[in-house]
Amino acid sequence: PAATSILKRQKQLRRKNVRFDQVTVYYFARRQGFTSVPSQGGSSLGMAPRHNSVRRYTLCEFAQEQEVNHREILREHLKEEKLHAKKMKLTKNGTVESEEADGLTLEDVSDDDIDVENVEVDDYFFLQPLPTKRRRALLRASGVHRIDAEEKQELRAIRLSREECGCDCRLYCDPEACACSQAGIKCQ
Fold this sequence. Notes:
Layout: H1 6-15, E1 22-27, E2 30-32, E3 45-47, E4 53-58, H2 59-90, H3 99-103, H4 132-141, H5 150-163, H6 179-182
Antiparallel strand pairs: 1-4, 2-3
C-alpha cells in the first residue's frame, strides 16, 4: 500500500467536529430551597436531591418542547398582566376600593383576551423572579405541606448582612480596627 502524505492526514483530522444529536433532561421534584436568597420574602425554591425521571430528546424535539413550554409560561404571564389591568381599571388605578376587583382571579381572564401568537417568544425573558405568594403556591402544589418558617428569618438576616459591605475606615486604614483587614481582604 502507498503511504498517505502527512498533509492529507491533517486534513482528515480537521474534518472531525463535535456534534450533538440528543438532549437529556433530568426532572427533579420541587422542594423548599435553603440554597438561594430571593430578593424578597421567605421560602426559596429548590429541588429534591435525586431526579425522579429522565427524558431524551432529539435537538429538534427539544426545541419544539421548549417552544411549547415558553408559550405556556408567556400565556400565564399575559393573563396575570390582563388581570392586573382589569383590577386597576375597576379601582381607578388603586385609588378606590372595589369588591369586584378583590374577587377577580386568573380564571376570570379568558384565553380569548390574550394574544400569545403575536408575541415573539424568543424576545421574552423566562427566568424572572417569582413573588413570595407564587413560590409558596408552587411548593404547596408540589406536595410540600409544611414550609419551614425558619428559612424566612435566615433569608432576612442574609439580606441585611449583604447591605453592610466594607469597613468604616476613612482616609487611612487601621488594620487592628478594619473589618476588611481582619477578614483577610483589601480595605474597602
